[in-house]
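Is this the right way to post structure tokens for a design question? Let me know if I should format differently. Anyway, here goes:
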């Protein structure tokens, strides 16, 4: 009986650890005051991500833009770029896109 209890405890620990590792959400704060979360969607080899601004229930679906170095996702008039540890959020909804530096929380 003790062996079964230990086995169950080990299996539960592994499940919890893998769930924490599978969390593909990253939170950011930007210079302009934007706060957002990006969730990378592993079901499609991270080809898609969802952008959600703090306080909003709306999510924006973004598609990977396939950079040689760094990452870039775009969709719904927004772009997210990350290169050499620097993150940028771009509001591309107007003729003159506005870039904002952001950092992970």
């Amino acid at each position: 009986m003790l062996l079964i209890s230990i086995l169950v405890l080990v299996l539960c620990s592994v499940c919890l650890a893998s769930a924490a590792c599978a969390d593909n959400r990253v939170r950011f704060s930007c210079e302009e005051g934007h706060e957002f979360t990006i969730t990378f969607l592993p079901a499609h080899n991270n080809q898609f991500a969802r952008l959600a601004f703090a306080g909003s229930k709306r999510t924006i679906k973004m598609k990977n833009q396939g950079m040689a170095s760094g990452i870039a996702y775009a969709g719904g008039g927004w772009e997210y770029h990350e290169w050499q540890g620097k993150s940028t959020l771009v509001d591309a909804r107007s003729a003159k896109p506005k870039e904002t530096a952001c950092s992970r929380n």
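Format looks fine. Someone answered above. Worth noting: The helical segments are 2-21. Residues 1-21 have pLDDT under 50 and may be disordered.
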